[in-house]
Design goal:
Helix content: 25-40%
Shape: elongated
Number of strands: 6
Number of domains: 2
Strand content: 5-15%
Number of helices: 8
Protein name: DUF4304 domain-containing protein
Structural class: alpha+beta
InterPro entries: DUF4304
Organism: Belliella pelovolcani
Length: about 240
Amino acid sequence: MGIFDFLKNNSKLTDEKSGKQTLPNKDEMKSHLDSIQREIYHFLKPLGFKKKGRTFNRQTEDGIYQVINIQSGRYEFGDKYVIPGFRENYYGKFTINLGVMVKEIYELESHNKPKDIYQDYDCQIRERLTHLTIKQDHWWTISDDNNKTAKEVIDGLSSHGLDWLDNFENRDKICRNLGDLEGGSPRAKLDVALIELHRDRAKAEKLFQDYYDNIEIKNGHKEYVKGLSDRLGVKLNDRN
């Protein structure tokens, strides 16, 4: 059986006789997830990652942070919450999020302050590990087979996750690769412009203008970009 063949036998958190949802023991789940996390950190620590909570960070250039986060599913109340194939209950499961945080973009928002550890939601570039490994979303079931689960995560990080992060390990690579990111954010060009503003202002202003010109007139984002450019001292011309 291959590393990710377990997907074919994905278990359900239900009682087969009654059809009612059975909830895993919270303390047991925490213990199992702690064990899985220890194995993952044992792999990541020699690579320069530090840990806080269930998130790992590594600074690869001044102000560039790689983020790996263990996200556990929360319990969703109500029998009507689950819509198979559309909305699932991930309680008792976890997934792995990846991200890259660029400090000068993060700090553009006045409420964003420096942190000891940055979370995946702080990142401008984000991905989920299993989108890279098996091309689909997947949440591992938290069970007592900790070594097997940890190995699957570590294998995924080794084969795909760390390489993906390293595509954006410095500003040169971010500016070169961000536009080619499959399924990437439409505002990637704006993020590149914000990085270039500190390196090549003329290039940054051209990127700003190109990005601004391609936003629909009645789109509220156009006003946001105009306000941002005014705040940064970048002059934009209305050509429409």
